[in-house]
Write a structure and sequence with these properties.
Elements: E1 14-15, E2 23-24, E3 40-41, H1 56-69, H2 94-101, H3 114-120, H4 130-145, E4 151-152, E5 167-168, H5 175-180, H6 182-189, H7 210-217, H8 230-236, H9 246-262, E6 266-267, E7 274-275, E8 279-280, E9 285-286, E10 297-301, E11 310-311, E12 323-331, E13 337-345, H10 348-361, E14 364-372, E15 381-389, E16 392-400, E17 403-408, E18 421-422, E19 435-442, E20 446-451, E21 454-455, E22 475-478, E23 490-498, H11 504-513, E24 518-524, H12 526-529, E25 534-542, E26 547-557, E27 567-570, E28 573-576, E29 579-580, E30 591-594, E31 605-606, E32 611-615, E33 624-629, E34 631-632, E35 635-636, H13 664-675, H14 682-691, H15 706-725, H16 727-733, H17 743-749, H18 753-763, H19 774-788, H20 799-814, H21 817-820
Antiparallel strand pairs: 1-4, 2-3, 5-6, 7-33, 8-33, 9-24, 10-23, 11-12, 12-13, 13-22, 13-23, 14-19, 14-23, 15-16, 15-22, 16-17, 17-18, 19-20, 20-21, 24-25, 25-26, 26-31, 26-32, 27-30, 27-34, 28-29, 28-33, 34-35
Length: 822
């Protein structure tokens, strides 16, 4: 049935994209090489010299599909004239190739085309990932199918009726696992799959920590069918690390899992529940990709592969910028990359596509779904870059604390894309949560930043320029600089590059479409509503490696001629594997009426705009979901919520000190103000990045350690060094002091207060009751200078040593409790 549910489903309609398909000869690599790269060249299809296309549709077929699949490394080695049937890429007559291709494609639902399913199954996939080949093939067929880029409606498909079954669920305690499966894992897998191994390999299911091992093992154990467990398959089918004979080892492990399963009671569905039919995640209707605007897409990474060292560009525009993963980068469930201290980088040859297609239009949009790991990253930390190193780039999306930074090289900026356009400090738009970020540029509005579908409110003050200064030998990289020295920590769920500016409406549309592999799960409730083919539908996706996201339920009937009577619905809850979920039941307060007044035929009736997460228990393939209701139609099940446990008696905590210490950011900022050396000073900035984790992270004085003081001292020395080494800065700061005199006379012939007084004025101030006594601190600093100016023996007390003494006096002052305590 076709639907166009206005509040949600219209956001998830499948946009069929018309793109300019180019091809190129390109390599792969991880380094930026200042060597000539091959220009974009034509595919074999562009040299076609047979009869012209009979119709416009045949010509669109040639441009969007045939030209892309006719090369020998794809389909042109077999399916040609006098070759293997069907001859859908024959080169003698494009009209005959068109006729042979039509039975192999579904222009209404390109993803179901035979050409797509064949490469998805591994047939002649030209990449290492069949799913990436399938995505690209889908794009090419979609481009042929709809040159006006109209939106197709998602077809909700009725699932097979299935009652919630009896399930075996993992016990919370790891004791049963410890006595059955764990001994084998520990004996034969601990040399690799532990965090203490010489070369640790995740997951750590053989960890010496039994709870960590249990958590890592659950997804690899099937309690219902032990022989199909991933652990068993690795031995039996993939011959991975067998300790004797692989078949006998697999049988031994199967027996251990069976012993564990035999010790677990079956969870039967409670008979009093009013429940829907049951579904697994993949029983749903695929909803991914609906509603996105991608007319001018030239590169796209969705990270669907889930394993390996390559993230594929599935835009269908060639050359594909496939990214090589290196360093601390991991795949996450539900499509995405987790970046810690690594990068995903394309070759310079394939990255040249961005230079060619973006400079051609003078416009661009960079779109990403990201999850920053924290709000303390600086640099700016590189999220997305097309660059040649730390100080040279074409463009960059970065993070500085709560801000997104946009660096873009134009004829009116420097080679590093400075001055950066950044979101406002006070707005704190960057948060450690899933966010949709779009950078745009056009010759009228300049740079713009959008976050979660909304304009950031910042205006580009840099004069409009062009891309003539762009360098075509740079490389595209995610999560770091190409030089590998400015990492960003967080998750990247999708990245897309467009060679036109997305409008505000198109950005909002793409934000509403969401991200990740999503399904509409149709929970059949016809038994209770007496309405034919009636379903409660939820949008469900794998949120991350540990949970599902259930969102925005609505009621619908797939019968176009149905008559909707009044049906009350109250207290909806989500169930998994035979029992209701114990937490996160945001729909339990649902109380409304399904009726003709609220129901729109073909669109349905929304039930809630809320969403919730549910923990993965077995795996996305095995977890079985259902819904329960307190009332649905005439059926009722009165649920009496248990009384909450009595609140624990409040404990009297130990008295907390009114005195605290500055944290790392406050220390850095304070030293900058006291010395006049900006935090952006290169030497200071490098020292802070190196020492930041060693500086105090909390203001509790009881947690202050000797290692914290060492870091404070080093920061003080660095600031004072930069103060004294800058001749103009030190002249203003220590006005009247002669730095050219030797140390054995400079502090005798001159007033030491020219050094001590400005330090005390800025660090201690005057008439502040809670600060140290100025005269006592002054005495200590004079004693320090006396000690350092003792030039007996072979000590060289020249003018350079005079500067060293001033630096030491400065560091002793600003590295003391006078600045640290608050």
């Amino acid at each position: 049935m076709s639907i166009s549910f206005s509040s949600r489903l219209q956001q998830l309609t499948i946009s069929l994209t018309l793109t300019i398909v180019l091809s190129a000869c390109g390599g792969s690599g991880t380094k930026v090489e200042e060597t000539p790269t091959p220009p974009l060249v034509s595919q074999p299809g562009d040299s076609y010299s047979g009869p012209p296309a009979d119709t416009d549709d045949v010509q669109q077929y040639k441009l969007n599909l045939w030209d892309n699949i006719s090369s020998a490394e794809r389909c042109g080695a077999c399916h040609i004239e006098n070759g293997q049937s069907p001859e859908f890429v024959r080169a003698d007559d494009i009209n005959l190739a068109y006729a042979a291709t039509n039975p192999l494609v579904n222009l209404d639902e390109p993803e179901t085309s035979t050409l797509v399913t064949k490469v998805a199954g591994g047939h002649n996939c030209w990449l290492t990932s069949p799913s990436a080949c399938a995505d690209i093939m889908t794009t090419w067929i979609a481009n042929w199918a709809d040159n006006d880029v109209t939106a197709n409606k998602i077809q909700l498909e009725a699932p097979t009726l299935k009652s919630p079954g009896a399930n075996k669920n993992f016990p919370e305690n790891s004791g049963l696992f410890a006595s059955t499966v764990y001994p084998l894992l520990q004996n034969y897998c601990a040399s690799c799959h532990t965090n203490s191994a010489s070369i640790p390999i995740s997951p750590y299911f053989a960890s010496s920590d039994i709870d960590e091992a249990y958590l890592a093992s659950k997804a690899r154990i099937s309690l219902d069918t032990p022989a199909s467990s991933r652990f068993v398959g690795r031995l039996r089918d993939e011959f991975h690390n067998c300790w004797s004979d692989c078949n006998s080892d697999a049988n031994e492990l199967t027996a251990a899992i069976q012993a564990m399963a035999d010790g677990i009671d079956i969870t039967e569905l409670a008979p009093e529940l009013i429940n829907s039919q049951a579904l697994t995640l993949f029983d749903g209707t695929l909803a991914t990709g609906g509603g996105r605007f991608e007319n001018d897409l030239i590169a796209k990474w969705e990270f669907k592969t889930g394993s390996g060292t390559t993230a594929f560009d599935t835009s269908g525009v060639e050359p594909a910028i496939d990214l090589t993963l290196s360093g601390d980068v991991a795949w996450i469930g539900g499509w995405g990359l987790q970046m810690v201290d690594g990068k995903a980088q394309g070759s310079t040859a394939s990255s040249k596509k961005l230079h060619t297609l973006l400079t051609a239009t003078g416009e661009m949009s960079i779109e990403a779904w990201v999850v920053p790991a924290n709000v303390t990253q600086e640099g700016p930390a590189r999220i997305i870059s097309y660059s040649g190193g730390a100080q040279t780039r074409n463009f960059t999306l970065g993070q500085t604390l709560y801000n997104y930074d946009y660096l873009l090289r134009t004829s009116n900026t420097d080679a590093n894309g400075e001055t950066a356009l950044s979101t406002a400090d006070a707005d704190e738009l960057l948060q450690s949560s899933l966010q949709h970020v779009v950078l745009t540029y056009d010759p009228i509005n300049g740079r713009q930043i959008y976050v979660n579908g909304m304009h950031s409110g910042v205006t580009d003050e840099v004069e409009i320029g062009n891309f003539n200064e762009w360098n075509d030998t740079y490389a595209f990289v995610l999560g770091n600089e190409v030089s590998g020295d400015i990492p960003w920590a967080g998750s990247i769920r999708m990245v897309a590059v467009h060679n036109r500016t997305l409008s505000a409406e198109q950005i909002a549309q793409n934000f509403a479409a969401g991200i990740g592999q999503k399904f509409f799960l149709l929970f059949n409730v016809s038994e209770h509503t007496d309405i034919a083919q009636s379903y409660v539908v939820l949008e469900v996706s794998q949120f991350d490696s540990y949970s599902y996201l259930f969102a925005e339920p609505f009621f619908i009937s797939l019968d176009d001629n149905v008559s909707i009577s009044s049906v009350p619905i109250q207290g909806m809850r989500i169930g998994i594997n035979g029992r209701e979920v114990t937490s996160g039941q945001v729909f339990q307060n649902l109380d409304l009426l399904i009726s003709d007044n609220n129901y729109i035929p073909g669109e349905g009736q929304p039930l809630s705009s809320l969403g919730t997460t549910v923990a993965i228990e077995k795996s996305p393939e095995a977890d079985e979901f259902f819904l329960t209701f307190e009332q649905l139609g005439s059926a009722t099940n009165v649920v009496i919520e248990a009384d909450p446990p009595a609140a624990a008696s409040p404990m009297d905590l130990a008295p907390q000190s009114d005195i605290g210490v500055r944290n790392f950011a406050e220390i850095n900022a304070s030293m900058s103000v006291v010395t006049g050396v900006p935090t952006s000073n290169a030497a200071v900035k490098a020292a802070f990045e190196k020492l930041k984790q060693q500086l105090p992270s909390v203001t509790n004085i009881d947690s202050y350690l000797a290692s914290n003081q060492m870091a404070v001292t080093q920061m003080a020395i660095k600031y004072c060094d930069q103060l004294v080494e800058n001749s103009s800065l030190r002249a203003d700061y220590f006005s009247g002091f002669d730095f050219t005199q030797s140390a054995d006379s400079a502090f005798i012939d001159q007033d030491r207060n020219l050094i001590i007084t400005p330090l005390l004025d800025r660090t201690i101030g005057s008439n502040i009751a809670t600060q140290p006594q100025r005269d006592q601190v002054s005495t200590e600093l004079n004693n320090l200078i006396d000690t350092l100016t003792n030039c007996s023996g072979n000590k060289v007390c020249d003018a350079t040593y005079t500067q060293t003494i001033v630096k030491a006096t400065c560091a002793a002052t600003i590295g003391s409790a006078a600045l640290l305590i608050q």
